[in-house]
Amino acid sequence: MSGRRPAPVVTGTVRPGWEGVRDAFARGQAEDPGGAQLAVRHGGRTVVDLWTPGTGRFGYGTAPDGAGSVDGAGCAGGTDGAGVTGGEAFRADSVGVLMSVSKALVAVCAHLLIERGVLDPADPVARHWPEFAAAGKAETTVADLLAHRAGLPAYTDDPAGLPEALLLDPAARVRALAALSPVWDPGKAFLYHALTYGDLVGEVVRRVSGESVGRFLAREVAGPLGLDLWIGLPEREEHRFVPQRAVRPDPTPGQVAQAVERAGLAPDDRLATSLRASSAELGRATASFGTRRGRAAEFPAAGGIGDARSLARLYAALVGPVDGVRLLSAATVDRARAPCTDHLPQPGVLHRLDGPDRSRFGLGFELPRPGTPLLGEGSFGHAGAGGRLGMAHPESGLAVGYVCTAMAWEPSAGPDPRWMPWTEAVRKAAGLGGG
Q1: C-alpha distance from residue 50 to each of 21, 66, 401, 415 (Å)
Q2: Residues 224-267: pLDDT tens digits?
Q3: Which CB contacts under 8 angstroms, 24+ apart, belong to 269-276?
Q4: Does the first or last residue of the chain, that is N or C, have fewer Cβ atoms within 10 Å of its Cβ?
Q5: Are strands 45-52 and 36-42 parallel, antiparallel or unpaired?
Q6: How many Cβ atoms sit within 10 Å of the Cβ of residue 134?
Q7: Contact at 8 Å (CB) between 383 and 96?
Q8: What pTM did the predictor assign?
């Protein structure tokens, strides 16, 4: 025997002409221990609807070696914060944590309000959220929030991050951001706001619409389109939830501190403490998604929960009609995908790390770069920690959703190897080229 793992079982449907995507999906998942779903729409109709339970290396219904005991919510809690919902296999109707793919859901809510004329990217945030004007933020704009230019990558200057009790309290997170001074001059640099993005933009949505971003998403987006997408998972849907599993240990606080120093930042530099705080906060938030409390809470930047079909349907409705529903006009989509950070450096000494693969943002969406090529030039979307991905290409009418349970993607190493075979096959089937 060669010791080679058998090819994963891939189930689902593809339309004629798209069979190559099924084969490519199987190749991409060949070494993946977790399950995955892939959905593709072209011109508004579903052309690919596939899923696989994975190779079974750590399966479902039993915890991997080293996982913790079952908590009061019936979830096995390990250091990766995964949680297991008890004997459940990954299926076509399973839903999982979307991590930063969630940021695009928040952006869609903001752009709906922009299109309706009750919000403008050029508005000072304080026009809608007066408390935000404190500590030198009076001129910060809504566009600065959407494009990660606000200078608020963490909730606190404490390198240990916001304590769990406050981190799980949306009102406390918002108060912390309102009181905090920016780490750099808003609009003059950019750096990824891993968790704070969701509360910054989400609070503007709440102030303008009168309801939380999770409720706004449910009423204005998920409801009309029939999507299984939530920011705050309803208890009635818990039986469909399948946890994520880390395939490598998270960095320790000491390792994060060392990485920050290697970037050229002194330990007491405010940007250094903010980066350490952001890492700690993200770790706590991710761990909370292994509990019912964390899944029910609204963590708009990373805690969205859903499936690949719904992501593809959402993105399809951004670039064209889906069953008579189109969410945003072409003009709004063009504004959302216009580059907003290409002309800006990263803050402080981090500008020395700028290179061809640095992040690129429009108004709330990621834009193509070597590490996250999406569907090529003109496409937009958002990746999520571990490898989730949602994206669209307006000119071709392509819309894609990919959801996985193994936290395998290592962004510093380039694109997720699981993406590449099927991304090329999708582009080829749609006439955009590809291998």
Answers
A1: 9, 31, 11, 21
A2: 999 999 999 999 999 999 999 888 888 899 999 999 999 899 99
A3: 269/348, 270/157, 270/183, 271/183, 271/184, 271/347, 271/348, 271/350, 272/159, 273/157, 273/158, 273/159, 274/153, 274/154, 274/157, 274/183, 275/153, 275/154, 276/159, 276/160, 276/161
A4: N
A5: antiparallel
A6: 14
A7: no
A8: 0.91
